[in-house]
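Problem statement: downstream parser choked on a complex file, so we are re-checking the raw output for the FE2/S2 (inorganic) cluster run. The parser issue turned out to be on our end (a line-ending mismatch), but while we're here, posting the original submission so the record is complete.
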Amino acid sequence: MSGEEPGAYVRVATVGDLPVGEGMAITIGEREVALFHVEGGWFAIDNVCPHQGGPLSEGWVEGETVTCPWHAWCFEVKTGAMTLGDFATVDAFDVRIQGEEVLVAPRPRAACVREQ
Ligand code: FES
């Protein structure tokens, strides 16, 4: 979104946009991000699968795990970690709910930690 302060959370959706158990693709700056609404809350990770680029937002969501629609690599929507190995990961972004608005941090969690 233009006019945002650097580091400010970005409004990406409203809570009615995404039912529990589903994901949607959003764009933050130049990054493709997958937003998920699960029983445990709202989470955001990279939308691009590190295997061959599959769209994780279109994957199958079960609990807090998403399965890539292309070749079934699985990732925790909370952390971006693989569930069946540790040879790949995707970045995770903090999500906040403010009233009816879903806000996502402009930078991934891991990148923020490395820069401190
Ligand atoms: S592109 Fe995601 S598992 Fe292959």
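For whoever reads this later: The CA atoms of residues 47 and 95 lie 15 Å apart.
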